[in-house]
């Protein structure tokens, strides 16, 4: 399959993509934790599109959970599993306490962020700068695992810091954690994190992608589960990466074009049920919005539909869908029917286009 997308080659993954130890699917595919984006409303939508893909929360500061209102940060929908909580922090005791609180919310995994390069995160001495102190990272992972022995503790990190260009420091980092902790799942963003001189956005674009480094990790540590992240935008790329690593994590493309996930269950998990249509998904989103608004717990329509704007990506009528779901005047009344009305406009545009053909 090298260099091209082959369904036959993808199907070869079917026999190994369900975890025989638990009822959970393996992490063949996952959606990256993204600040302000992968909240519970986005995760609900994503779960309507794909049943088996792993979903991740936004990074949540461990201190906010321990010293604040845990329910505010950890509340989730029952339908989200398999779902992982990503924590940010550098104090082992605090991370352990946060993990214990999170265990009450039935997360399937707790992930330690060692990849975020933002100045705000660096001020808290966590994120990507943790890669400079592998012993502290090991202490954090061990404290979390000791606190919640039944929940897998994983890590997400970069391939290096600043302008480091060699593979060996990455291998040393992973090898040290392999020896000192029980962590066996490493999610690797295939770019360096520049701690100075680049914005978070630039850190996602300017440092070059080195997929070969991540592939080498899998070769050197075959017993580890290696998940690749960074720059993945198509199913073809997913299939190519799966020749070398255990799983693929997609970020922004899965947010801006969420319907790309609609055939993942079929292509990568061997699902035999038909993929959901956009119309079916829209109906589920309407039902969800109706339920959320009826609870009167502070959720407003805008909190939900801001995540739906990319659902019609590539369709005639996508522009009017986005316009209606971001119109302040239309959103002011908190009418969940707006979702169905916007979809009706898309259907009209689609029908008009098809009639011309």
TrEMBL record:
Gene3D superfamilies: 1.20.120.1460, Aldolase class I. The record marks 113, 201, 204, 322 as: Interacts with tRNA. FMN binds at residues 33-35, 86, 156, 189, 229-231, 251-252. It is an enzyme of class 1 (oxidoreductase). Pfam families: Dus. Keywords: Flavoprotein, FMN, NADP, Nucleotide-binding, Oxidoreductase, RNA-binding, tRNA processing, tRNA-binding. Residues 31-334 form the DUS-like FMN-binding domain. The active site is at residue 116. Its cofactor is FMN. One of its GO terms (molecular function) is FMN binding. Its EC number is 1.3.1.91. It catalyses: 5,6-dihydrouridine(20) in tRNA + NAD(+) = uridine(20) in tRNA + NADH + H(+); 5,6-dihydrouridine(20a) in tRNA + NADP(+) = uridine(20a) in tRNA + NADPH + H(+); 5,6-dihydrouridine(20) in tRNA + NADP(+) = uridine(20) in tRNA + NADPH + H(+); 5,6-dihydrouridine(20a) in tRNA + NAD(+) = uridine(20a) in tRNA + NADH + H(+). Belongs to the Dus family. DusA subfamily. Belongs to the dus family. Catalyzes the synthesis of 5,6-dihydrouridine (D), a modified base found in the D-loop of most tRNAs, via the reduction of the C5-C6 double bond in target uridines. Specifically modifies U20 and U20a in tRNAs. This is tRNA-dihydrouridine(20/20a) synthase. It comes from Kingella kingae ATCC 23330. The lineage of its organism: Bacteria, Pseudomonadati, Pseudomonadota, Betaproteobacteria, Neisseriales.
